[in-house]
Amino acid sequence: MVEIPETSRVAKAPPLRLRAVAAGLMGAVLASLCCIPGAVAIAVGASVGTAASLFRLQDFQILFQLAGVATALGWSWWLIRRSRKRCTIEEHQRNRSSVPMFALSGFAALFLFLNVVVIPWLERR
Questions:
Q1: What residue spans define the domains of the chain?
Q2: Three-class DSSP category at 2
Q3: Statement: the pTM of the whole predicted model exceeds 0.85
């Protein structure tokens, strides 16, 4: 049997809560994609036609938001499912409630920051 040296082992994965927050952040960016391109077009001084065509994405705002929430919850489900194989029973039970909470908290925080601070700031520039 071959011994694996301690220095060549694979690094430990980030904590599950951190990965859940990352899933929420990814969902928030997806949910805000209806508004960000038009604001960026205005900020960089794109032509009126380009900015107007990008602002047409706001007609699909609800779909973008639903896709963002679905992404955050889908990744949460995947993380919980994977924790069943890698964690103890107690850790898995704790993850079942904490992972969606962290994912939706990350989603809400970044979504509000993007839509209340960043997008209005870009549109004023």
A1: 17-124
A2: coil
A3: no
Condensed to tens digits (0 to 9), the pLDDT of residues 2-57 reads 665 555 555 566 788 899 999 999 999 999 998 888 888 888 888 888 888 888 88
Structure tokens at 18: 């951190």
Contact 27, 72 (CB under 8 A): yes
Percent of residues, the chain, with pLDDT higher than 90:
42
Structure tokens belonging to residue 13: 């994965």
CA 63 from centre of chain: 16
Helix (H, G, I), strand (E, B) or coil at 33: coil
The residues, ordered by sequence, that sit 6+ positions from 64 with a Cβ below 8 Å of its Cβ are: 30, 31, 32, 33, 34, 57
Backbone φ, ψ for residue 112 (5° rounding): -65, -40
Q: What tokens were used for 51? A: 């900015």
